[in-house]
Amino acid sequence: MALTGSTLLDSEEALPPGTEAVRQAPPPAVDKVLPKAHREPAHDTVVVIPARNEEAEVLSSLESLAAQTHRPDLILVVVNNSTDGTERITREFAGRPGVPQTRVLCLPDNPHKKAGALNHALAGLAEQCGDLTGAARYVLVMDADTSLHPRFVQRARMVMESDPTLGGVSATCYGRSGLWQNPWQRYLAGMQIIEYGRYAHTRSRTDLHTMAGAGSFYSTAALQHLIDARGEVFWQHSGNLVEDYETTLSLKEAGWRVTANQYCVAYTDLMPVLGDLVRQRERWVRGTLDIMRQRGWTRHTRLSIVQYVLGLLGFAYSLGWVAVWAAQSIAQGQPAGDPLWLLLLLAWSVFSAVRVIPLGWKAMLVCALLLPELVFQFIRTYWMGASLWRSYTSGAATWA
Question: What is the rounded CA–CA span in Å between residue 20 and residue 148?
Fold first, then answer.
């Protein structure tokens, strides 16, 4: 089923509250943004970390913030529906001498999941100073299984200060290595490392698809703009599986620019278990498709729609190519050796290797072999196809 404009507009899902107000709001003029920027907020940079059952990773995230060359003034950890030792570990960190001021907020029964945890922290922050712009100049939202490069905050601030119409700077994400226990998990983790690395070096900077949930650095003026329009930054809806994508669209529709920067680096955990990987990606893709269907074909969604359709077509072409080659090989009793086919295969092998040069020779070798990526492409196409089917045939999605 093609994702065309008319199909997208047929969604019966309710749009986020205030969406039309956000869409119709004029772009924030520089002379209107600058007065807010010149206000002296209570904090320069505040970090918000929603953490659900992250006792194994949250300490690394917090320590990466303590190691920043430009340290945040305040860290808010929202322990969200956790049943493990996340709260204990974060409170122990907060009690350390010499670390940034850290507050631990607990939401043991939060029906709005990640979006609700983020809004809870931002609402409390704004309440102390009247609004977000009075509370902080910037807000960094990051996942509890992510660690930041020591100069992340320093570099993100420099990017934001270069353009007052910027609403946010997204992290460039790389996968952590060493998470495997057997060859199959090593393969899955390795393909994700390549996937993250390739995306990091090819993603568009001028029309960013989505701010990364792993690390997004926002202007509080932009976030306050969303609060004024719809009462919240992140859309609190049970079907909102990708709060980062929906918020990115809302910022664009309100006239704010968002960008990514290759020097604002975040390192995030991978999924070495196939079941966990598929569930994670189905949530991402299903959530993105649901939001695109709600919004329809617009100048902010059309690139994402086209990329999704091309991804499915690309796999169909690859599958067809392999099927024809296999059929010819069986008919001839030996591997097909048409010079044109071999030339195309060689060209694609070289192209795949060149695209991952920054990741080193091992990644280049894996990509040049083609077969490892072809297997992973089968897995990727499964979650893309399954997400498309469920977006159109099942009811409203919910967080697991």
Answer: 35
Q: Are 136 and 220 in contact (CB under 8 A)?
A: yes
Please name the residue ranges forming H helices in 130-266.
Answer: 132-135, 152-161, 183-202, 220-230, 243-253
- Burial track 345-373 (b if 16+ CB lie within 10 A, e otherwise): eeeeeeebbebbeebeeebbebbbebebb
pLDDT in tens, 187-226: 999 999 999 998 887 665 556 889 998 999 999 999 999 9
Chain segment 36-63, per-residue pLDDT in tens: 445 689 999 999 999 999 999 999 999 9
SS3 content of the chain, % helix, strand, coil (to 5): 55, 15, 30
- Distance CA(248)–CA(391), nearest Å, equals 20
Q: Which 8-state DSSP code applies to residue 139?
A: E
Q: Whole-prediction pTM value?
A: 0.88
Backbone dihedral angles phi then psi of residue 355, each to the nearest 5 degrees: -65, -20
Measured N-to-C along each axis, helices 371-393 and 274-295 cross at an angle, to the nearest 10 degrees, of 50
